[in-house]
Amino acid sequence: MRVLSRLAVIAFLLLAPTLGRAAPIEELVEERARLDYADSLPEAGHFDISVKDALEGEAVLLADFWMDVPSGRFLANAVLDTGEVQRIGGLALVSVPVPVPARRLMPDSIIKQDDLVMSALPVGRVGAYVVTDPSEVVGKQVRRHLPAGRPIQQQSIIRPLLIDRGERVDIHFSDGLLALVAPGRALDDAHEGQLVRIVNLISNKTVTGIATADGTVEIPR
Fold it and tell me: Do residues 149 and 168 make contact, with C-beta atoms less than 8 angstroms apart?
């Protein structure tokens, strides 16, 4: 450490005219942590820096920096305004804002804007299937019950169902000149634009059509 301190003093004396004033240690750590994260840093991510060691002076620069990105743990050699070098350690955790339910949401309910709040979560808790954009949640139907304050998984929400399995629906067919309507019963759930099987209650035959916005089924030509 004595050799390191002497080298740091020499570097400090040589660079002092260009170093400028001391900076908060959290800013210095974040600058180096961003370099370590590189392209893996989420666009909306922000750092929460905690340094466990009290500085014995004002930090001017970090001479060395080591970081374990998955855990956020770091070690650094901070050059102080006195020219001394101090070893420090701590955590540089990245959080991202994600929409979470403000209250428990039950299956089949339609999610509204006031059902959600934004919560900053450690990036390690935000998996590949977590929804991070609230616009992708509002208006969707809950497929599996959503606990309050928990990240929302993509597979837990769906586009709202227009047709429920077993529901009576109108079957529409048109070839441009002829338009027919027949009663049917849905064999599947379906959202708008989805293919759905229906039993024609007149012919007792099963046909496949497309669920439309008004809850009817259109048979393609």
Answer: no
